[in-house]
Design brief:
With 250 residues, this protein is α/β, with parallel strands linked by helices. Helix content is 44%, strand content 15%. The chain contains 7 helices and 7 strands, in the order E-H-E-H-E-H-E-H-E-H-E-H-H-E.
Length: 250
């Protein structure tokens, strides 16, 4: 296997399950030292154990990314342990309740925006400070197809992912000339724990919305994240890359 991330230090938030876990495993398989971060200590340690079983160099840092202090501490602990930060995949996020706007609670709006959007600002604020000193780095923000289109009943989620794309573009304008690339990935509906509460009939309807006729897998998203995190994507910055089975082609 091509160890294209050999010696690189990478943070993955929301790494306790789903896409984040797949990214952490793939980063490690390609030689990166991986900082596993998740709000759940149990899930985070499960991913940590999976990495350790593959002889990866890794640590777990519990963090609630909706709190800027936790994001600062995550980066601080990374640098204290490994002396640098080369890659960050800001993946942590939640789906939120399904409701029309008039029926969405103020509390739910703030919760989704804090976890999905403010967290990316917090994480990048501290990640970019380190990367700017180094003069190098790559950041991949985990958006969604719903960063490009609407989806009835998910106003907060849609708004947070649209906002993330704007934040990604702005970061790229500010830091790309300093050797730091920042991009966003837009998964379609992926078969992860986020869809755990969806019944099979609904899953079939959602799958049919994709030209491929199926849900994606975390591994398929992770492969795109790996490329964007590597030097192979040296001219890719400030962009949004869907991996959606043709959802947005309709």
């Amino acid at each position: 296997m091509d160890k294209e991330l050999q010696g690189k230090v990478a943070i993955v938030t929301g790494a306790g399950s789903g896409i984040g876990q797949a990214v952490a495993l793939l980063y490690a398989a390609h030689g990166a030292k991986v900082i596993v971060s998740d709000i759940s200590e149990q899930r985070g340690n499960e991913t940590l154990q999976m990495l350790q079983n593959k002889d990866a160099e890794t640590i777990f840092v519990q963090a609630d990314v909706s709190k800027h202090g936790d994001c600062a501490a995550l980066v601080r602990k990374t640098v204290a342990e490994y002396g640098r930060l080369d890659i960050a995949c800001n993946n942590a996020g939640i789906g939120g309740e399904i409701n029309n706007i008039a029926d969405t609670s103020i509390e739910e709006w703030h919760k989704v925006m804090n976890v999905n959007l403010s967290s990316v600002f917090y994480c990048m604020k501290y990640q970019l400070a380190v990367m700017e000193q180094q003069g190098s780095g790559a950041i991949v923000n985990m958006a969604s197809i719903l960063g490009a289109v609407g989806f009835a009943g998910s106003a907060a989620y849609v708004a947070s992912k649209h906002g993330m794309l704007g934040l990604t573009k702005n970061a790229a304008l500010e830091y790309s000339a300093k050797g730091i690339r920042i991009n966003a990935v837009g998964p379609g509906f992926i078969d992860t724990p986020l869809l755990r509460n969806m019944d099979e009939a609904t899953k079939k309807v959602i799958a049919a919305m994709h030209a491929s006729g199926r849900l994606g897998t975390p591994q398929e998203v992770a492969e795109l994240v790996l490329w964007l995190s590597s030097d192979k994507a040296s001219f890719a910055t400030g962009a949004y890359y869907p991996v959606d089975g043709g959802y947005l082609a309709r």
